[in-house]
User: Fold Aspartate--tRNA ligase from Sellimonas intestinalis.
Amino acid sequence: MYRITGSSVPVTETNLLEHIGEVIRIHGSVYKIRKMRGFAFVLLRCAKHIYQCVYSEEKAKFPLEVLVEESCVIFQAEVVGEERSRMGAELHLIDVEILSKPYEISQVVINQKEVDTSLATLLDYRPVTLRNEKERAVFRIQNGITDGFRIFFRKYGFTEIHTPKIGSAGAEGGANIFRMDYFGKEAYLAQSPQFYKQMMVGVHERVFEIAPVFRAEKHDTSRHLNEYTSVDVEMGYVTSVETLMETETYMLKSMFSYLKEEYEEELALLKVSLPDLQEIPVIPFAKVKEIVARIRHSEVTDPEDLEPEEEKRICQWVKEKTGSEFVFVTEYPEKKRPFYTMESKEHPELTRSFDLLYQGLEITTGGLRIHNYEEQVAKLQRRGMRPESFASYLMAHRAGLPPHGGMGIGLERLTSQLLGYSNVRRASLFPRDMHRLEP
Amino acid sequence: MYRITGSSVPVTETNLLEHIGEVIRIHGSVYKIRKMRGFAFVLLRCAKHIYQCVYSEEKAKFPLEVLVEESCVIFQAEVVGEERSRMGAELHLIDVEILSKPYEISQVVINQKEVDTSLATLLDYRPVTLRNEKERAVFRIQNGITDGFRIFFRKYGFTEIHTPKIGSAGAEGGANIFRMDYFGKEAYLAQSPQFYKQMMVGVHERVFEIAPVFRAEKHDTSRHLNEYTSVDVEMGYVTSVETLMETETYMLKSMFSYLKEEYEEELALLKVSLPDLQEIPVIPFAKVKEIVARIRHSEVTDPEDLEPEEEKRICQWVKEKTGSEFVFVTEYPEKKRPFYTMESKEHPELTRSFDLLYQGLEITTGGLRIHNYEEQVAKLQRRGMRPESFASYLMAHRAGLPPHGGMGIGLERLTSQLLGYSNVRRASLFPRDMHRLEP
Assistant:
C-alpha cells in the first residue's frame, strides 16, 4: 500500500525572466511554425501565455520537421533575454519530447491574430477556434469578472448558494420556460434563482449565486441566449433602490479594479480599455421615454417598456451629457415587472426597481421585493395568479422576511459589452440559442 | 439627473468587542425570546452570528411585547462586555425599530439547538428550518469548501469555465439522463461537464467548473441526489494517475486549512473536527475486493464494481491500519468505466482511473482520458457506440489534445461526510430526488 502525500502540483508555466541563461523544460502546444532563412520561429501556446521559441539546426538536436502545429510537446530550451519579444525573453530550442500529435490540421485557421471567419463557423468549431490567443483571452477575462465579483462578495458578507435548476414552478412564469419530465411529474428549468435567493435572505441575509439559467424565449437576436450565466445577488435589510444601485456600482468598481490588476495582458491583447467608472447617472423610466422621444422628434410610444433602440439612444445621450457608459433606469411601470416587485407607495403604477444599461444594452435587472406575506398574496391575486402554486416560496414570507432586494447580472452580456462585441454569443463558450445545441 | 457613486456598502454586522461601552444600531431577526425573572434574553440572528441581547424595563424604551420571534428589527443598544457570552459581549437594549413581522409562527420549532423533527419535515420546511443556527452553518461551511478550492485553483493556474447544461448528447449516455424538448429538438441535461472540460484542456490547459449536474438515476438512497453540485477539474500535460491524486490531495489539504482558518466558529458549532490529512493510501481495485472478501470470510463477488457495503468495509480497514479517513482506489475494471477512460497499457482490462472514498463513501471519480483521436474512435466502436454522435467532442481530439485527466467531486457528498451526516440531502439546500421537486 503506497501513499499519496499531496505535497506538490506541477507548474503550468515558468516565468522566463527568472531563468535567463538557464536551460529549462517547458510543456505546451505548438501554436505556429514560421520558417525564416536558416532558422524558424516556433510559438508555444501554454496555459496563459504564448512563448516565442527559436529553432536553429546548430542548436537543436532534432529536425524541425518533427514539429507539427497543434502537437503537444515538452521542449528543452535555453532562456535568452530578448527585448523585442513580448515576454522579454525567448526560448532557444535544444530538444523536444512529443506528447501528442493532431489527427489532422483544422480547416479553420486559428493561429493568426484573429480567427478570420463568420460567426457561425467560429461557433461551429468552438473546440478548435477557442485555441486562438484572442478567443481564449475573452474567457480568461470572463473568469476575471467572476473572481472580481467574488472578492467583493466575500468582503461584504455575502454567502454563496447553490439552488436547484429543476423545479415545479417558474419564477417569472409564462411561456418562456423549458419543460421536462421528472419521474412522471412535469418539471421546469429555472429561469432564475429568484425564489430561492429570496428565501435565503431569511437565512444568511446576503447571498449570491453564479449559475446557469434557462429561458425558452423565441428571440433570435444578437442579445439573447437561451442558457446563460446569471450573477444573482440578494440582500436583506435594504429599504431603498438606491442602496441596491450603490451596491452594484461598488461591485462593478471593485471588479474593474481587479481586472486592471490581474488581467492587464489579456485586456491589452484584446485592446480593451476598462471604463473609468466614477458614478452612474439615474434616470426614471418616464423621463427616458421623454428624452428619447425628443431626440427622435416623435411621440412617446409603448409607455410600458423600453425598446432595444430606445436603450441604445438613451445610452448615447447619457454618454454625450456625462461621459458615462452606464445608466440606471428606475421606476419601471408595474405592469411589466414580475409579481414579486415592490411598488412605489406614492405611485403604485410604478415599481421600486431598476435596470442597468451599459453601452446600449440592459445588463442588470433589479429591485426591491415584496417581503410582507399578505401584500404578496394580494398582489398575486390581483394578477389572477394562484398563491397555492407558490406555497413553498411564500413559506418564507409567512415566517417573516426582512425588507430586501437584489439583482441579476447577465455574465455574457457584461463580458460582451466590455469587449465591444456586437453579438453576445462571442462571450459564451458554447452558446445555446434556438438553432444551436452543439457543440 | 442624480448620480450613484458606489462608494459604500452597508455593513451586515458589527464586531461588538470593538464597541464596548458604546451605543450602536444593529439589524437582525429576533431568533428567540427567553423571559427571565425581571428581564429577558433576546437572541438576535444576524448574517453570520447570533447576538445575546438583554431586555430590561429600566433600560428599554419599548415594551417587550412588541418583539415577536422572526420579526426583523433594528435595535439601538449598549454594548456591554460579558465573558459568559459567546461573543464576549452582549447588547443591552434601548430602543427598537420593527421592520417586518411574520404572518404566523412556524409550526416547526427552529430556535432550539437542533431542529427536532424528521428528515422529511426538515426538508419540506427548508425555507424556515434553514434559519436554525446549525442548519445554516452547514451551508456556510459548504461555501468555505468551494472558496477553499477556488483559492487552490487560482494559485495553480486553473481557469474557471461555464459550460452548457442543455446539450444534444450525454457524457455517460444510458438511461440516467433527463430529456427535454428544445424548440422541437430532443435535448438532454448535462450529467457532467466531461466533454466540455476535456475540450477546454486544449484551450486553457487547466480548467475547473463548479456547477449543477443532473442524473435521472432511479436510486432512492441516502447517497444519491438527482441534481447536485459537481466540482469538476481537468488538467493537461498529465501522464500519470498519481499526478491527479497528488493534485486532489493537495486541493483537499488547502481547502481544509482554509476552513480551519475561516470557519472555526461554524465548525465548533457543529462539533466538527477536520480530518488530519497527511497522506492518502492507495489500493488497487482487485486488492480491495480481496481484502474485503477476507474480512467478510467470503468469496470475491461482482469482480467489476464495488458495492456500497464494500466501500464502507475498506474504509474501516484503512482507518484501522493507517488512521486515514480517505483511501484512493485505483485500476478499476475497464468495463465499468466510461468510454473516454484511458486503459492500462500492460493490462487493458484495467483503467488508469481512481475513486476517492471518504468515510465509506465515494466522493470523487477521476482518471486519465484518451487523448488520441484514433484510439478514442476505436474504443467507441468496440463499445458499439457511433463516433458520429460525438462529432463536436471528437473535434478536440482530431485537432490535437495533450495527455490529460481530471476528476469530479460531489460537493454535497463531501460536505455531508465532513459533517458526519448519514444522508446527503442534509448537505443540499433544496435537494432533488425522485420524490422531491419542492421546495
In short: Chain A touches chain B through 133 residues (CB under 8 Å). Residues 133-155 of chain A form the longest helix (23 residues). The mean pLDDT of chain A is 96.
